[in-house]
Amino acid sequence: MDIATDTLRSISATATREGAGVTVFRTIGTPRLRELDPFLLLDHIDSDDPDHYVAGFTSHPHRGFVTLTYILDGIMTHKDSLGNSGDLGPGSVQWMKAASGIIHSEMPKQKDGLLRGFQLWINLPAARKMDRPEYQEYAATAFPVVRTTAYIVKVLVGSFDNVIAPIKDDVTSTSLYDVQIRPGARFHVTAPAGHNQFIYVFEGGGKLLGHDMASRSLFIPEITGSAGNSAEFIAGEHGARFLMANAKPISETIVRQGPFVMNTRAEIEQAAHDYQTNQLVRDKALLHRNK
């Protein structure tokens, strides 16, 4: 193993009101961590109190990036201005490449019970920000799972141990996994050299690089070496479950304002103008759905 440094940065989630009044736990996209190129935002919904989520995310626009929505428990209904709609149930994922422009809503289908899930925003490079929008949506059974005596890895985007996720990403080079580790077991956290990486713990905890890793916290292993990034996670007595992601940085100037992420202030002003004059949605979205 070729390791040059082995530090760990941690960000505790901040409870934030979003949408029409939904409580989310945010790590990326806060004053402590504005972005982790190309990751722009990470929100975690986790509540069995309908007052925290029933208002949902009413109709709103996006331009310039990808949103990935992963539902763990509960059902979220989505609709957009082009007539696309569907239900995201437990274990399902939607990859929405907003690109040139989408106006959509995401509303809980349930009135009570547990709602858990994530939304991750991933930046697009300047040359692809005005691409035609695209949806990819898959049910839980579409995603491959790698099982050992120590861990279970659900491959959401990218590949792991020679299995490949159904979501196709030819732009951002993102890999995303849902990792569950049994109590006291070990798991090697890895990423290609030059990629930014994060781990978001949402059940249990453990240790990585000698640091305690608690739930509702995001960790950024800063491990560099020509062979890539690698470190050992040791789960605690209750085991651990976390999202693990990595991607190659885009390394471009970012200008963001609410639901728009572009490269210049003029592009942001154009996006706002397009939305106000009903010109944001330029192309009908491509839809790839596998139930």
Automatic annotation (TrEMBL):
Residues 177-279 form the Pirin C-terminal domain. Fe cation binds at residues 60, 62, 104, 106. It comes from the Bacteria. GO terms for molecular function: metal ion binding. It holds the Pfam family Pirin_C. CDD domains: cupin_pirin_C, cupin_pirin_N. Keywords: Iron, Metal-binding. Residues 23-122 form the Pirin N-terminal domain. Binds 1 Fe cation per subunit. Its cofactor is Fe cation. InterPro entries: Pirin, Pirin_C_dom, Pirin_N_dom, RmlC-like_jellyroll, RmlC_Cupin_sf. Belongs to the pirin family. PANTHER family: PIRIN (PTHR13903:SF8), PIRIN-RELATED (PTHR13903). This is Pirin N-terminal domain-containing protein. It comes from Nitrosomonas marina.
